[in-house]
Amino acid sequence: MQRRKLLTAPATLSIASALPVIPAKQAGMESLQFGPNFNFGISTSAYQIEGAVHEGGRAPSIWDVFCHEPHHITDGDTADVACDHYHRMPEDIDLIAGAGIKNYRFSICWSRLFPTDDRTPNATGFGFYDLLIDRLLAKNIAPWMCLYHWDLPQRLQERGGWRNRDTSARLAEFSDQVSRHFGDRVSHWMVLNEAAVHSRFGHGVGVHAPGLTGMASWASALHHLNLGQGLTIQALRANGVKGRIGTVACVEPIWPSTDKPEDVAAAQRLDAMWNGAVLDPLLAGHYPELVAEYFEPFCQPGDLEQTHQPIDLLGVNYYSRLHIQADPSVPLDANFGPDHAPVKYTALGWPIEPDGLPEILMRITNTYNRQEIFISENGFATVQDGRPVNGLRDAGRIAYLQQHLSFLKKAIDQGANVSGYFVWTLLDDFEWDGGLKWRFGLVDVDYETQKRTPKDSYHWYAQLIKLNTAVTA
Ligand code: IFM
Questions:
Q1: For residue 390, what pLDDT is reported?
Q2: How would you write the pLDDT of the chain (473 residues) with one tens digit per residue?
Q3: N or C: which end of the chain has fewer CB within 10 A?
Q4: Ligand 1 centroid vs 302 CA: distance in angstroms?
Q5: Could you say which DSSP state residue 153 is in?
Q6: Is 194 a catalytic residue?
Q7: What single-letter DSSP state applies at residue 379?
């Protein structure tokens, strides 16, 4: 996801137990104690790991189509195979279990479950997720299911996709059927992943699937995602699912690149669209005044009552602040710009700003009545050609996670109601327009052989969880 500038056969696993245990002080984790009820977890998404795009009766999604069009993805990569998780799911779950991780957020592929229409389930697709969930439960790992992580069935795109109001109802209908099937086993339901990114990148500036551009397309997609989310929450509640219900948003502090009035105004507009227009309809039942005009053509009477639904918890994906400058060449005249000289960048050129985490968490806490939150994604990428020279010794990733956890603790001390922290991500995976080159995993994947090798960060995370468990047991 190029949201900031870009600079530039079953494996034999050696898992946590194989690593010599480094003293907590040396590993920098002695102060990272979060208490007995805190949920450490890990997140993935279906399209980024599953592969097997033509197997088990699956039909194409918008991302299959987009990847196979020229020039969209770095190096022309596709996710046709990705991590081959569809065939290697048991060993991948064993990796999660091997690190002592007790919570797993994954998404389900809509076009694997309903390839032909919205009423005819594909038994093979349901069978795959049945096996996955049952294996998680057998390993004492809670299944956190995300219903929609950007891979809309292409058949729905052909009817207008998220610009078509009917897609909101289709999401609710899909979720209704899914929740009837899995409702007794899923511990947490997350409706959407990052509506801000999916609407702006996919429907506003066209660098993600389905590659659409323009302000009207962006706003209509976002409104229909918000509406579909509200309808889905109601469907899940009506079905009496056992699990808790929430959604996932990337909420980030948005700062102007400079003090120039046009940059300040651009940052305010993007903040209203990126943060406000995602959270306000859900948690407060309105759109921010600054951008409300863009939604008027699509927002029908009663819609904001449908979008405004109580949730049990909000997933917050945090990577850094966004630094914004005025740019008339993009919708909303607001684009990513230079940063405020942060100390360091990741290899993607994303600034490393752990202090932005308490900033955004306190804002959510103060604006939305101390809403319960969990950090649903936080992670660090390297950019890699070929096999890692030093990729398994990922001290930079460990430092990044450690710093963010330490600032997360500050937010909790200041009063934020945060009940969990999930790393992005388990495996090096297909990173959207970044292709296979961007590597976020705690576990290295050799795409030639599909061999999985845990990196140092995997062992570090295992040790952190163990330490928290030992202290709180
Ligand atoms: O890979 C993505 C994920 O799908 C959504 N959040 C950001 C991650 C890193 O780019």
A1: 63
A2: 444 443 332 232 334 334 445 667 766 788 999 987 899 999 999 999 999 999 999 999 999 999 999 999 999 999 999 999 999 999 999 999 999 999 999 999 999 999 999 999 999 999 999 999 999 999 999 999 999 999 999 999 999 999 999 999 999 999 999 999 999 999 999 999 999 999 999 999 999 999 999 999 999 999 999 999 999 999 999 999 999 999 999 999 999 999 999 999 999 999 999 999 999 999 999 999 999 999 999 999 999 999 999 999 999 999 999 999 999 999 999 999 998 776 789 988 899 999 999 999 999 999 999 999 999 999 999 987 666 666 689 999 999 999 999 999 999 999 999 999 999 999 999 999 999 999 999 999 999 999 999 999 999 999 999 999 975 44
A3: C
A4: 32
A5: B
A6: yes
A7: -
Q: Which amino acid is at 36?
A: P
CA distance 55 to 122: 12
Q: What distance in angstroms lies between residue 252's CA and the mean position of ligand 1's atoms? A: 14
Domain ranges of the chain: 16-472
Q: 406: CA distance to ligand 1 center in Å?
A: 22
- The closest-lying atom of ligand 1 relative to the alpha carbon of residue 434 is 10
Q: Closest Cα to residue 438, out of 14, 63, 75?
A: 75
Assess whether the C-beta atom of 107 lies below 6 angstroms from ligand 1.
no
Q: Identify the active-site residue in 50, 353, 377, 431.
A: 377
Catalytic residue among 50, 194, 252, 353: 194
Say if residues 430 and 439 touch (Cβ distance below 8 Å).
no
Ligand 1 atom 4: residue of nearest CA: 45
Compute, in angstroms, the gap from residue 301 CA to the centroid of ligand 1. 34
Whose CA is closest to atom 7 on ligand 1? 1
Q: Quote the ligand 1 centre to 264 CA distance (angstroms).
A: 27
Report yes or no on whether pTM surpasses 0.85. yes
**CATH top-level class for 16-472?**
alpha beta
Nearest to 178 by CA among 246, 107, 244: 107
Q: How far are the Cα atoms of 122, 353, 439 from residue 342, in angstroms, in the given order? A: 49, 7, 22
Atom of ligand 1 nearest to the CA of 440: 9
CA–CA dist 258, 255 (Å, integer): 9
Is the CB of 303 inside a 6 Å radius of any atom of ligand 1? no
Q: Find the length of the chain.
A: 473
Sign of the C-alpha dihedral, residues 363, 365, 371, 376?
positive
Q: Is 317 in the pocket of ligand 1 (CB under 6 A)?
A: yes
Q: Residues 60, 111: contact at Cβ < 8 Å? A: yes
d(CA 329, CA 124): 46
Q: Could you tell me if 444 and 388 are in contact, meaning their C-beta atoms sit under 8 angstroms apart?
A: yes
Using alpha carbons, select from 136, 153, 150 the residue that is nearest to residue 89. Answer: 136
> Is residue 202 within 8 Å of residue 221, measured between CB atoms?
yes
